[in-house]
Amino acid sequence: MNGPPPLVESVAELSHRLDRQGYLADQGLATALFCATRLAQPLLLEGEAGVGKTEAAKALAAALDTPLLRLQCYEGIDASEALYEWNYPRQLLAIRLAEAEGRTLTETSLFGPDYLVARPLLQAIEHPGPHPAVLLLDEVDRADDEFEAFLLELLAEASVTIPELGTVRALQRPIVLLTSNRTRDLHDALKRRCLYHWIDYPDLDRAVEIIRRRVPESHQPLAAQVAAAVQRLRSLDLQKPPGIAEAIDWTRVLELLGVTELDEVAVAQTLGSVLKYREDVEYALDRGAGWVGG
Fold first, then answer.
1. Beta strand pairing status for 195-198 and 166-169?
2. What confidence tier does 1 reach under pLDDT thresholds 50, 70, 90?
3. How far apart are CA 264 and CA 292, in angstroms?
4. How far apart are alpha carbons 234 and 240 in whole angstroms?
5. Most buried in the list 8, 60, 129, 249, measured by CB within 10 Å?
6. Segment 14-21 long-range contacts (CB within 8 Å, at least 24 positions apart)
7. pTM
8. Does residue 111 surpass a pLDDT of 90?
9. Nearest CA to 84 among 124, 121, 128?
């Protein structure tokens, strides 16, 4: 018996679809994303902040015409915020209504699907299709060890257990992408379950192309000046080196202000759109606005 047709036939086809969504993936990233759509393994994307890890998941969902379900991880996140919780206010209203009508509600009826609030993990598992959802576990390195351990079963089995309802298995295994900025090392147990790809900063030509895709009103000379300036800034020992996301933001600001050339004045006035620490701005300006602008 033949299974459903694949979501995408080849790496080249996926690259083309991502391109149409305005996301330029190099061969390595396109290959990793293709494998994630065809294998029952999550894909762990690592790289410096701002290189496009989250955007890759957004573009993949759009390219596959399927929902993106995103869980932003943070220190202290627990299973109820990621998986499900019970709608206690609605349960309370149901109890009061039953009392007013002289009925008795059983525990089974109160802890049924009508009172369950699905969070991103459960939404991804319950997604009915026609295509599997893309589940993004963003910045998983910010979550605690306990939450990382909680993810293992879900990633391996594509199922979760709700004590009151039993085990819920995915109708279609979601395509899972995890991102990490390497604020801490992830456990080997999690990495073993994942495909892995490191997203590096784009080279100058690709950076210009990405900027122009994301800021289509930008002019090529200005986009090239911004891309080169961002590369120069990364050569400094900054607290937060700028990524492609900051380069795009910088270009948008310059376009908004009607700037056509990244001269010393433009750099001095807009450096805060690409550097996000006072010390970094001062450090760069010590080298000279003219040096930054090239």
1. unpaired
2. very low
3. 8
4. 9
5. 60
6. 14/63, 17/63, 17/64, 18/59, 18/60, 18/63, 20/63, 21/59, 21/62, 21/63
7. 0.84
8. no
9. 121
